[in-house]
Structures are given as C-alpha cells and as structure tokens.
Design brief:
The protein is an alpha/beta fold and 394 residues long. Helices cover 40% and strands 8% of the residues. It has a 5-stranded parallel sheet, sandwiched between helices. Helix 1 crosses helix 3, helix 1 runs antiparallel to helix 11 and helix 2 packs parallel to helix 9. It binds thiamine diphosphate and magnesium ion.
Length: 394
C-alpha cells in the first residue's frame, strides 16, 4: 500500500443503499466532533462509514496531502513556483473527493486543488507545471480524466455538466466531480451549471469547499444566504451540508452522491464547511483582513488531528505507524525538492504559439516585443523600439 492508494474500496465496509439527501439540514453532517469523538446522530442512519483500515488509508492520504502542500509552499518561497494557492486545512475535502472517484470519472479542479491532482496519481512535477509559469497544465487531461485546474471562477461548472451529460448519452457510467469555492457560487456559471445539471439530470457532483473566504471577502459579504447548500433548492437539486474537516462524514456523503449520480439519480450539490488556514496565495497577506483568534479557532478543528485522535482511540493508529508515515512523506518531499531544483526548459515563444491556429498580428507583435526584451531571435536586445510596448499588458 502506498500513500496514494486511494482507489481501493474499503474491505468490510457496510454497504447501504444510497438515500435521497435532503436540502433542509441546517447543521453540517458530521461523524466526529472537533475532539475526534463520534457524534451521536451526526450522520443519517444509512450513512456508509468506512472500516478502520480504509480510514487509516484516508489518514495517510491526509498526511500526504499536507506534506505535499507544505512542500509546494516552501517551493514558492524558494522561487521554484511562481505562485501557490494552499489547501492547508482543506485536505479532508481533497482526499474524500479523490477517494469517491472511480478510474473513469472526471475531476474538474480549481487552482486550490493541486493536492487532489497528486492524490489522483499525477506526478507533482506535472501537477505544478502551470504554477511554475508554463503556458500548459503539465499533464494529459484525457489520460488522468482530470481537466486543467481552473482559474476563471466557476467556468468549470458547465464543462462538468457537459462531460456528465456526454457520459450519460453514451451510456458510460462516468460521473463528473466539480470543485467550487464559496466565492464561485456567486458566479453566473455556477448557477447555469446547477440548472442545466438538474434539467438534464446529469451525473455530476458539485463539491463547494466553503473555506469562508474569497481572497479577502468573508462569506457574510459574499452572500446573504445562511448556507450555500440551500442554493440547490431553487434548481431542484439535493443540497447537503457537511463538516468539511471530517473525513469520515465527507466520505459517507460523497459516496451517496456518487452512487446516486452513477445509478441515474442525477446531480447533488455538497457544501463542505471548512477553512483556508493560509492566505489566499503567497501574494496575499491574510492578517490584513482576519483575526488570528479566528485562525486559532479553526486550528482546533484541524482535519488531520481530528482523525488521528479517533483512529488512536479505536486502536488503529499508533506512534510506529505515524513514524512510518513521517518517513514516507519526507521521502516524497525530498524527491519533489530534487525535481524542482532543475530549471525547466521553456521558450517564451511557446506562450504565443498555441492560442490560435493562425497567430494574430497582435500576438506576432507581442512575441516580437518579448524576443526583443530577451535579446533573442528576431530581437534587437532592447525592451524598447517595437512601438507596441503597451500591448502585451492588455
Ligand atoms: C471570473 C473570475 N472573477 C474573478 C477572479 C479573481 N479571483 C481569483 S480567486 C478569487 C476568489 C475565489 O474565492 P473562492 O471561490 O471562495 O475560492 P478559494 O480561493 O477560497 O478557494 C477571485 C475573486 C477570477 N479568477 N475569475
Ligand atoms: Mg473560498
């Protein structure tokens, strides 16, 4: 078994039929409280709870996701990545989402979901290619059934519906999993995706990671709704609100939503209540708009500590397993550091070459300007003198 071994389904996990999730839960569904103790009645009676060995695999994946995220954050500070939006604090959403996917399912990640890419098996050096400053996403979306990470907010929503609907029409049992942030739920594309998914009963699972912020905008300034899962109601979708720092509950909710979608039951909107522990990206200073006491509050609800406490209490985790995981994570990060120490070979011309089949005159002029700045082919070694200086910035 490896840290990335998420695909195996839990041996011995009780199987229950999928039920129709209700849109009316005001409390997030949860299995574990913040101290890692089981909550009586926190999940629906038919919820599928993973067996301890599968939960331990989930714990390893959480630890791996955090190690990867920490290493990527370090790489940006060393100038090896141009930017990195961290998922620290949101690892349970990343792990549960990937765990729910079958090999043929599509995943549509946002810029914050790099951990989901590596959990799916994409090598780190490929997954982080875009954030290294390349013009392409670094991996083959078809091979990994994973679309490029989406930066324009919510535009991946209609794409997810298209993929789901295409699978449905072709009689292929794939489901499309679409990540959104809380801020993205204010975008028109989010609403169009929810509406069309419901109308066509497309096999799509929308996972909204409500991490409380859209850059510096807190949720209460983003929406007047009390919970994002309620947005499902107007479209005739089931909406479920779940504790996004509780891997056990997330797994149960996602499993039901995937079963439903795969068996012709249509889409589900899941709101996972979580918290963005780091700033929006390395280019943001979160101390300017939020209190450290708030961050401290969420630290006490950390998804990794919570599951560790539970697994330790049931005898599934001990110091020797922790040490083994530490070692595996350290080895993975060491390999990442070595790979990123090598400078990638990029030619600036590539940036202009694949935008249109036929390069436009503007792009030709911009390419000439960059060449001139580089002092390379076609340039005169000067950043000036092309007469088009303003154009590349538009
Ligand atoms: C259509 C569009 N508008 C604005 C932006 C600028 N922008 C980038 S990230 C972001 C905040 C998004 O917040 P949220 O959806 O909650 O995701 P999170 O970053 O918290 O994961 C904004 C406004 C964008 N990328 N795309
Ligand atoms: Mg957010």
């Amino acid at each position: 078994m490896t840290l990335l071994d998420l695909s195996a389904h839990p041996e011995g996990a009780a199987h229950h039929p999928a039920s129709e999730p209700s849109a009316w839960d005001s409390q997030p569904l949860r299995y574990l409280d913040e101290h890692g103790a089981p909550v009586e009645g926190g999940l629906r009676p038919d919820a599928r709870i993973l067996a301890p060995d599968a939960l331990l695999r989930g714990y390893r994946a959480l630890r791996f996701a955090r190690a990867f995220d920490t290493e990527a954050t370090n790489l940006v500070m060393q100038g090896r990545l141009a930017v990195y939006p961290s998922c620290r604090g949101q690892e349970a959403c990343e792990v549960a989402a990937v765990h729910a996917l079958a090999e043929q399912d599509w995943m549509l990640p946002t810029y914050r979901d790099s951990a989901a890419l590596v959990l799916r098996g994409i090598p780190a050096v490929e997954a982080l290619t875009l954030l290294r400053g390349s013009w392409h996403c670094g991996y083959d979306p078809k091979q990994w059934r994973t679309m490029p990470q989406c930066t324009p907010l919510a535009t991946q929503g209609p794409h997810a519906v298209g993929l789901g609907l295409a699978a449905k029409l072709a009689g292929d049992p794939s489901v499309a999993l679409c990540f959104f942030g809380d801020g993205a739920t204010s975008e028109g594309d989010f609403h169009e995706a929810c509406n069309s998914a419901a109308v066509y009963q497309a096999p799509v699972v929308f996972l909204v990671q409500n991490n409380q912020y859209a850059i510096s905008v807190p949720l209460h300034k983003q929406t007047h709704a009390t919970q994002l899962s309620d947005k499902a109601i107007g479209y005739g979708l089931p909406g479920v609100r779940v504790d996004g720092n509780d891997l056990v509950a997330l797994n149960a909710v996602l499993a039901q939503a995937f079963d439903k979608a795969r068996n012709g039951g249509g889409p589900t909107l899941i709101e996972a209540v979580t918290y963005r522990m780091q700033a929006h990206t390395n280019a943001d200073d979160a101390a300017r708009y939020r209190q450290s006491s708030e961050v401290e509050y969420w630290k006490q609800r950390d998804p990794i500590d919570r599951l560790a406490k539970y697994l330790t209490a049931i005898g599934a985790l001990d110091a020797s397993i922790e040490a083994e995981i530490d070692e595996e994570c350290a080895a993975y990060c060491e390999q990442m550091r070595a790979q990123f120490a090598e400078e990638p070979e990029y030619h600036p011309d590539e940036m202009f070459e694949h935008v249109y089949a036929q390069m436009t005159p503007q792009l030709e002029r911009q390419r000439a300007m960059v060449r001139a700045e580089q002092g390379g082919a076609g340039g005169n070694g000067s950043a000036h003198g092309t007469g088009n200086e303003g154009e590349a910035g538009r």
